[in-house]
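hey can u run this one w/ MGD bound, need the structure tokens asap thx
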Amino acid sequence: MDSSLTVLGACPLDCPDTCSWVVTVRDGEAVSLRGNREHPYTRGALCVKVNRYLEHTRAADRLLYPLRRTGPKGSGRFERITWDEALSEIAERLTAIVAEHGGEAIWPYQGTGTLGYVQGETGEAGRRLWNVLGASRHDLNICSRAGNDGLRYVYGTPGGMDPETFALSRLILLWGTNTLTSGHHLWKFVQDARAAGAYVVAIDPIRTRTADQADEHLPIRPGTDAALALGLLHVVLEEGAEDRDYIERHTLGWEEFAAEIAKYPVERVAEITGLPADRIRALGVRLAHTRPTGIRATMGIQRHEGGGAAMRAIACIPGVTGDWRYPGGGVAYSTSAHVPLRADTREDLLPHPVRTLTMTRLADGLDESVKCLWVYAANPLGSTSDQNRIRAALSRDDLFTVVMEQFPTDTVDYADIVLPSTMQTEHLDVHAGYGHMYLMWNEPAVEPPGECLSTTETFRRLARQMGLTEPSLYDTDLEIAEQLLGPAGISLEEIRKQGWVRLGVADPFVPFTEGFPTPSGRLEFVSERAGAAGLPRVAGYTPSLTARTAPSDRPHPLTLVTPASHTFLNTTFANNPELLRRSKGPRVLVNPADAESRGLTDGQPVRVFNANGEFTADVEISDRVAPGVVAAPKGHWPKLSAGGANPNAVVDERDADMGRGAVYHDNFVDVAPL
Ligand SMILES: Nc1nc2c(c(=O)[nH]1)N[C@H]1C(S)=C(S)[C@@H](COP(=O)(O)OP(=O)(O)OC[C@H]3O[C@@H](n4cnc5c(=O)[nH]c(N)nc54)[C@H](O)[C@@H]3O)O[C@H]1N2
Ligand SMILES: Nc1nc2c(c(=O)[nH]1)N[C@H]1C(S)=C(S)[C@@H](COP(=O)(O)OP(=O)(O)OC[C@H]3O[C@@H](n4cnc5c(=O)[nH]c(N)nc54)[C@H](O)[C@@H]3O)O[C@H]1N2
Ligand code: SF4
Ligand SMILES: [Mo]
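ok here u go:
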């Protein structure tokens, strides 16, 4: 007799696909975790990383008990303590900090370890407690903000195409996105389009595995995409293929934008982007005459000084071609803005207005005014810019650091108190994909191992320990889920039963048929809001730092790009032995010409360095990158890497043009034998 049951869940990771999964539980133990074939977008496949999720939940290095540090900060030496000891020590310290320095001395540093609406990023976990204490607000801008803002100036929202409609596109531009690595479920819609005759172009400084599969790859110079967008539109105008009717009826500022386009003839764009003029022209002609054209641009493109402007310029393309008229036309960056769940920010709980601290600016922000850093679902020592300065800031003796974690990351090593956290099979959550149009339910499948607690339960217990009386601090996870779903008109029963529900929009979904949520109600080539924010009024080209610096002024000759790794999700899974093995360890791609001039041989260990610091990697000599560009994936744990650092040791803590986004793909480095 089979006593097993199946439990529906969702992948919590910061990946656009948010897969639906099915956990089989036997005698209280999860025995398998598989993709859910019933899900219309993810259709049963997970990925190389999450195929190992159950193994990861039982990993030997999983944190199972609260810990108190016994060695110096960074030593990673801890003793096991009870939850009572941990919570009473924390409550005492927080109460004293609030009394002496005010609540704003607490920085709740929340990352993207889970995108859950209950346990994570977008959600309720902690916010109510932090508001009651008057803690600083945390701006989680690390990932996609510059691009979001760029899109907002044009469309009024970062929301765009339903990715499923790429099946209907006849020209697909995969622009600054590595689909087969960072959200591979889109690929079958790309393939469906191809079967119907679509042409697929990858625009990426790296010849990625996605570029390998495309019909054409344009190896653009990093940080010059807006110039390419304008150059392609230049050809569209030469061809007389602009959609005059659409422009007149649905856009704002055409004359001024057309004058901007006029500044970017193909020859000039070839010089800026490093692409051959005839290939730019050929793509421009294709764009001019292929409807619908679907553009998939994701976050890679905006991790630059001019990243917001790049997304803004790309967003203008379908305004000129009229592609927003058609299913399969337009731009798809993220679907988050279509999600109707609106977590109540509960400002009413604040004792007084509070400051905002910026996630991308941890090294700068962690000054004397911060007395408690509370890290959850984040691994700043692996993922945030300027690692060495963060390490120094975390070493401060008067800083009280609490880290809620599943694994003993580099960041954990700097904690005063470590609190063990549940994983996705062990807690309840609600999710929304940012690359599809479905809401997801995650039912807890098993009891947590050891003494792990969910984020919500940890905060409920801490509130009790601190004697706080605000009733909403004690809402259960199910109550929180109901508060989210109810106002959005989503039935808890339905989503729980099926594991997912489609957002309440037409299928196929074509956005902006009723206008754009901009001040003018039109697609804005010219934005007064941008002007008021000190940005160019007219969409245009803002080069990245490395693109705008003359060779003689560059402190180091090479541009480093640090994209998604195929085997990790940010730093998550980079401690899994099998995935670490498959990653082949920290590597840096170097063009044969740059290798030769430095006397490098394939496989040799090198230092990649600049004034911020250095990291160690094995050289992979390859024409997958152009001369002048080197690439090293994000995600390796510093302490598991030779030299104790990862690429963020050389990444500047510097702002993109919009939203204070990070500049992970816009740094000068050089490479030398170790
Ligand atoms: N396997 C895996 N999947 C992931 C992640 C992961 O770590 N691993 N991370 C997840 C997260 S957090 C996010 S935000 C998304 C990010 O996923 P993506 O948006 O795909 O982001 P990146 O990997 O940073 O960059 C994508 C591509 O953009 C290219 N690129 C860099 N600079 C430029 C440029 O100036 N112009 C152009 N045209 N291209 C450029 C890079 O070479 C890279 O191939 O993926 C998610 N999915
Ligand atoms: N060089 C370089 N660096 C980058 C990027 C890049 O392109 N290049 N990309 C950036 C991007 S896009 C992002 S989104 C950031 C991500 O940066 P972070 O938000 O710091 O994400 P991770 O590094 O994955 O760390 C997440 C941690 O959360 C933990 N975790 C997961 N679920 C839970 C939970 O439910 N509770 C608790 N308490 N912990 C949990 C995991 O174990 C993991 O250690 O990294 C950025 N860093
Ligand atoms: S990381 Fe992405 S592709 Fe992999 S299981 Fe999670 S949602 Fe699916
Ligand atoms: Mo991200």
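The mean pLDDT is 97. anyway lmk if its weird
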